[in-house]
Amino acid sequence: MQASSYKPEEHLTLPDQPGVYRYFNAANELIYVGKAKNLKKRVSSYFNKISGLNLKTKRMVREIQRIEITMVNSELDALLLENNLIKKTQPKYNILLRDDKTYPYLLLTKENFPRIFQTRKYIPKRGTYFGPFASVKAMNNVLDLIRELFTIRTCKLDLSPYKIAEEKYKVCLEYHIGNCQGPCVGLQKESNYLKDIEQAKHILKGNLGVAKSHFKQEMQKMAENLEFEKAQKLKDKLILLEKYQAKSLVASPNIANLDVCTIVTDEKNAYVNYLRIKNGAMNVSKNVELKKKLDETDEQLLLTALIRLQDQFQSDAKEVLINIDIEEPIEGLNLTLPKIGDKKKLIELSLKNALYYKKEKALLKGLNEDKKDRVIRQLQQDLSLPDIPDHIECFDNSNIQGTNPVASMVCFLNGKPAVKEYRHFHIKTVVGANDFASMKEVVGRRYKRLLEEDKPLPKLIVIDGGKGQLSSSVEALKELGIYGKMPIIGIAKRLEEIYFPGDSYPIHIDKKSESLRLLQRIRDEAHRFAITFHRDVRSKNAFGTQLTDIEGIGKNTAEKLLSHFKSIKKIKEANETELIEVIGSSRTKALMEWIEKNKGA
Predict the structure, then answer these.
(1) Rounded to two decimals, what is the model's pTM?
(2) What Å distances lie between residue 210 and 148, 202, 282, CA to CA?
(3) Where do the UVR domain residues begin and end (predicted)?
(4) What are phi and psi of 345, to 5 degrees?
């Protein structure tokens, strides 16, 4: 399949064929992958009816600079290709399944006397994988059943013929308790061992009927040969297999292999349950959550989840039961909305799981929101604040022996860091290491700017420091005429003492309190942000000093070079033409001589 490229205005020239379309932005980043029964109609719908699109879709359309398409033979092929591309590239406007777990498989190894064991690593050359299993318990049940029915080795020995012939191995405890027939010492032929493996494969595939028929035939043979003890052992295994099947049976055993996929939605998310049924037995049950990106329909969300889950769990089902009407059937995908009988019961079972999952997610979200709200309410109570402190700003200074003084401000909204609101400050009016004057400067600059831009003031200001820094900050607020309009506190590191303006004595919040932990987290974040900025400034200034030592290179030229090339290393790697473009030929000559002299330095 060959990809063809188009500009957005060329969408009318697209073919009337099924396929996949890909949207790229100005930075040539893939932002959306979609499938279509008719590429021309589907892609044109984004550009011809833009007034009818929701805000998110309009935003995406504005970003589109280039379109790529791949034509396929059918809508199902388009659906499968779309899934593969989304899984591989994860564009920002596509729906993604919220599920980052690594699922376990059962691996049948490709070696002499193959082994069966669980693994989470998928390396195809190692053998045949069965799964993945959504439940570790379900996987262990299958593995335990196989080990009770068959004598399959669990050791890691190399059982190639020449190794066995060397007679270096001895039988282990598994042999003595009857779980292994001793292939390591030549007591079991590989042809006999592989008969058990063949039956185990049927069980791993969910074909329990084949294994049952095998045990019945073998039991009959033993009885005819008057080997009643062996016949009884086979009968016990048959009963064990039937009990396992009865436990996992969810519908009539006459139901062929099929998948069940149901969906329930709310305003922002979709919740999907997926069941895989083989011979009436459920061997996969999986819930997933999808976040709506472009106001997708229930039909789009269900198909997206179904294709990805079938791919993930390697389904070969010929029929899929669903709980919603699909307006336009997809050729090659047999979707059924059952109204009565066992299939209807399967839909009800799956839907019950989907609804429970939705309820569970809502409860968890509510608990998280309650916790967040509880902590800031507790902080309001502990500090006797007039309003809930859902907007907190914290300041910290950083300098070493008065060099490169800087400050930082971090912002927390609803108890969480709002990184986009963080700010750095170069100290402009203070000479030397004067933390009090520096704090006054940055607090004054911050709130003067907010007042000029008519932006909301915080519900609480936190100053990293004791009474001195707090008093300086209060002066800045008084000069702006906003002192008293918002609470301000200082937090001293040593004893976690909290100071209020005008109070001689600090207050102490319980060390185990969630509200104190929130204040500590905010203070530590401000400190980290200030230290990181100070380190960067100090490093940059050191580079600048190194450059200004060159004759003919002054402070302004050094700043130009560092602004353009970002580091001394990149300046040294630049060619003469690049340097001339930034600082001119005469200064470039002096710089090149210095670079030549300091090669390897």
Answers:
(1) 0.49
(2) 17, 7, 17
(3) 214-244
(4) -65, -35
